[in-house]
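Note to self: the last two entries modelled the partners one at a time, which told us nothing about the interface. This time every component goes in together.
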Amino acid sequence: MFIQALIAGIAVGSVYALIALGMVLIYKASSVINFSQGALVMIGAYITYAVVTGIPAPLWITIPIAIGLSALLGVVIERLIFRYMTGVDLIAVIMVTLGISFLLEGSTTAIWGTLNYSFPKILPEMSFSLGGIHISEVYIWSFIFSMVILIMFTLFFKYSKIGLRMRAVADNQKASISLGIHPGKMISLSWAISCVVATIGGVMLANIKLLNLGLSGIGILVFPVVILGGLDSIIGAVLGGFIIGILGSLSAVYAGGLMGGAVDQVVSFVILLIILLVKPYGLFGTKETLRL
Amino acid sequence: MHKNKTVIGLGIAVIFYLLGPFVLSDYMLYLVNLAAIATIGAVGLNILTGYTGLIAMANGAFIGVGAYTAAVLYTKLGVPFLLTIPIAGLMTAVIGMIFGIPALRLRGFYLAMSTLAAQILLMFIFNNWTSVTNGERGIFLAPPNLFGFSLVGDKGFFFLTVGIATLGMLFSYNLFKTDTGRAFIAIRDRDIAANIIGVDIFKYKLISFAISSFYAGVAGALFGFYMTYVSPEGFGLNVSIDYIAMIIVGGLGNLWGGLLGAIFVVILPEFVDKGIEIVGQFIPMEYTFAAFRQLVFGLMIIVFLVWEPKGLAEIFRRLFCWLKAKIFSPKSEMEPQV
Amino acid sequence: MIKRISVAVMFVALSIFVFSGLGLAKAKEEIPIGIIGVFTGMDTDVNGMSYGTRDYFEWYNDKFGGIKGYPIKCIMLDGKNSIPDEVKNFKRLVSVEKAVVINGWGTGGTKALKDQVNKVVKIPYLSESLAIEVIDPVNCPYNFVLGPSYEGQIEIGMVWAKMQGAKTYAILHNDIEYGRGTTKNVIKAGLAEKLGIEILGTVEYPWHLTDCTAQLLRIKEMNPDYVYIQDSATNCTTILRDAAKVGFPASKLIADCWNFNPIIPETLGKDAEGFHPIMLFPDYGSDIPLMKEILEYAATHKIEKKDQNYVRGWTEGKLIVESIKRVIEKSNGKLPETAKFRTMIRDEMEALENFDVGGSVPPVTYADHQGTSSAMIGEVRDGKFVSISDWIDIRKVREELNKK
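The predicted structure of the combined assembly is written out below.
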């Protein structure tokens, strides 16, 4: 049973990792803590659903359209809102992302209503049994995607020009302007990428559950992951996702009978609290220095 | 002249307070009562977030602690109704201080996260400590007696909620004339500098948590008695988020911010519903348009943060100055900014 | 300056907007009936019942010109399945709209309004939630529900399992009132022992469920003959999927009435084959007399949700209208004043006996405030729901077992 719980935990963890990656990316590029990641995940799934079921074309045409639309959404959010939010208080940033998530949930309700939708099977079939557990293709694909994105981002931020510019913008906007970097463009781009990552996460999640408004709830569950891994660490997001997934799964198997209920989710928030008290910047995060 | 105005203002307030329940319909009274309870919670949260600069996402759960404390004292131990309210406040203040301890090391977003964890943990306790909280079943409260009158319905509660909300605002107003209140503001503006000039940051952060939680506890006790039913459903994260929205929309670090924000968040759905009802007569709209409430709410928050970060309180102040300049003394200058 | 003026104008306009509406006196000689539905948030997938009731009123108004000549004025509000909002809607319906009967929604709201409904306002309140605390004709004379409680449904599942020769049973449920509270009641009632079925255990999972593998692994270790899932379709889909993952067959899973939802076979395909939801109402389009009325209405109107919940709503509308009709007959064709009207409707509702609603449920006798305690067991076959049992009346079963 231990092995089975472990495998189940890794499977769930890879979905967490995917969603955490989007959050870390935005933080890395613009120091914005995104409480609307859950809503982006949800609306990404809806957009993909609408495009795939609405346009009578093969998947290799529709999927890029869906990804393009998600990227556009990210750019619009940055251009219309965050462009005007430089140098404001943290609480304003947190609250504006919460406002965005209300807005996105409201628009989703207005457009698609409140029905449950059955998400079309767009992932290639590919499943196998491991240690007595049947692992469905969703989890395998989540694992693959999270690994691919992890490698891509790591290389992107280390070696590509744009990636380096993004880091410069996040580090010091004024200095980066003097170097000829347009911070708005860089942040726009990071929102676009983050929205695409969120959409991938949303498609995975909609394949696991049903497509409905409840998908945005994942946004909160991912916070322990990013805190554990470190807010600005890409590898941290992925490892954090696996650790939280596994611990949640193990605690549900072994402590669920004793404590009942949402023990796996509570365990991840207890971990969050411990991490905050012991090592606030997570396993791989960069320590902030305070200046007067 | 100035004194006269104050007297007139006070007079109007007292008349409203005494006559309100007999003029307004039960539905309007319900909205007023909800707004008054929300005001208590929001003024409290404003002390913590607006004045001390500590972001807390556990206000919903703190309100729950107050509601449960009052409910348990009242139903299981038979403590008189009026006494349960301050005890609920004190109990919540203690819990708030415990969850404020991480503020020793954490600031900003990390502190927000630790309070988010507090919210989740407290909800777990509400749900699972069944011997005390009755779990997800909830606790029924019989309508309480106050000086021999059964406090049932909206009229009786009007006096209580509006009265306590007024007291809460008065306390908050006076708090920022004391050393403690000024220490809070110093911590918000430059905590390291405050430390250097001798403000014990940790102590004052904890005091701020305690005061804010006390307000939440009182609001929770009132909410529980008013709903006559306490269950975990009413104290989730969405409630915490609503409270943050209130102080943002109302005005961070402004005495009137809590009041205006609470009224705004309680009344906004009414405006939207009415709007949809009126538009719906001409254009057939199905109920998916209930989504508009969320849309407008989200939009309002964003608009306020981008366009008027100081909130409704600032808009009202300017409006007031402008009206005064126009109507009362056309030639006088605008009041200087505070 | 323009900014300030616009702000002022906006404010004045908005204020007028609200208060003009609130002050309007309602037209006389109408029968105001309130519906508290859910149009935002969780549970909206089953809001067909609110639409069903509303549409029944409209159909009745169109066809008969109202009840004995008095048109029904239906006020449908969004309770968001949250306690403060449902209480707010209740106050508006009672004090502003002067509704004479309310079709309410959720478990929490219904419980919070218990005192208001029964002691303060005294208004018949037919709620969609089947919470057992309010099914109590003595202490809650104004609360009505329609159908067996969730507890009853779990027991109906047991009775059926027993018929299939099962010896062991397990219950999988969520951690909110709806799941945990219900399960506790069933265990306490102890029908299982009387039936001769052993409950091997109960397993709990979080309400916001992402993955249920771990919990299902525990179930698999217990290896019961049947497992009852006490939850609605969203979580049940996840559970069924994960059941397939750990290799637990869907044919051993029974679940409550909200899982009679086409989304389940549609989403899961072969993983849902053999799954057994409880059916309280026949599906939309079934061959029953009541369906003819719906189709008549559907010929000219759009049906929002074509499912069994809509049939349920239609049935509830029928019960409400029948009670009101009897009240008006008794008061010689005149409408009594509001408070008396409410009490009279309650009395007439309770007095309904063997009232034939047209085949959507067995004839309704409302003395127990439940109307019916019967349900059928369904099964997913080739992606479609079919009923595989007759009506199982749990009250009769209980009575028989108690006699022994």
